[in-house]
Write a structure and sequence with these properties.
There is one protein chain. This protein is elongated. With 204 residues, it is α+β, with helices and mostly antiparallel strands. The strands form three sheets. The protein has a four-stranded antiparallel sheet with strand order 3-2-1-5, with helices on one face. Strands 4-8-9-10 form a four-stranded antiparallel sheet. It has a two-stranded antiparallel sheet with strand order 6-7. It has one domain: minor pseudopilin epsh domain (minor pseudopilin epsh fold). The chain is built from two helices and ten strands; from the N terminus they run H-E-E-E-E-E-E-E-E-E-E-H.
């Protein structure tokens, strides 16, 4: 019996079309655009918040300076009463005109309104923060600036403890302002000229 040989069949191989992937976006370009947008938004937010933050800082600086000033005034008066004689608070500036450099509470033995060698310095205040300004306006205000109390606790002139001297200290930081008014009896009161215009314009 002879074997029958069948011809082999060749099937056509399927053609596979190449897979086309969508073009990839550059990761670096994508990240750079996002960074620029984030920086732009941050700059806008920072610009909007800066004025309010500055106002808060100025208000805090004003409050701190006011507390220091009131403490020094109270110390001057208390020491004058305790010693039974005149005690002064004057600018630490050598010219005696600028409160910005702080102030000194001292016993003015020679009535020249300046702390001299040999005169006791009871307290010394450091300079005010940048942007905080202090000015004074008193009766008999010619010459060096100062605030004096006599042994009875009344505000007076440096060279005459029986002569009354009163006035106003003005403290400012940006748009914030406080007036420290001292009457002829030496009593102190603080007012806000914006919120209390009637109180601040009244007599000391």
């Amino acid at each position: 019996m002879q074997a029958v040989h069948m011809p082999s069949l060749r099937l056509p191989s399927p053609r596979l079309s190449p897979l086309r992937l969508p073009p990839r976006r550059s990761a670096s370009a994508h990240t750079l655009i996002e960074l620029l947008v984030a920086l732009a938004v941050a700059a806008i937010l920072a610009g909007a918040a800066a004025p309010s933050l500055q106002a808060v800082l100025q208000k805090q600086q004003l409050r701190a300076a006011l507390n220091d000033l009131l403490g020094a005034i109270d110390l001057t008066r208390s020491m004058a009463i305790a010693r039974g004689g005149v005690v002064l608070m004057a600018p630490a500036d050598p010219s005696g005109a600028a409160w910005q450099h702080g102030w000194t509470v001292f016993a003015d033995l020679n009535a020249n309104r300046r702390p001299d060698p040999g005169e006791e310095r009871i307290a010394v205040q450091q300079p005010l923060a940048d942007g905080v300004h202090l000015a004074s306006r008193f009766t008999s205000g010619t010459g060096a600036q100062y605030l004096a109390y006599n042994g009875a606790g009344r505000s007076c002139q440096a060279g005459n403890s029986q002569a009354a001297r009163w006035g106003t200290l003005t403290l400012e930081a940006g748009e914030h302002k406080r007036l420290i008014k001292i009457n002829m009896l030496g009593r102190v009161r603080v007012c806000d000229p914006v919120a209390q215009p009637d109180v601040c314009t009244s007599a000391d």
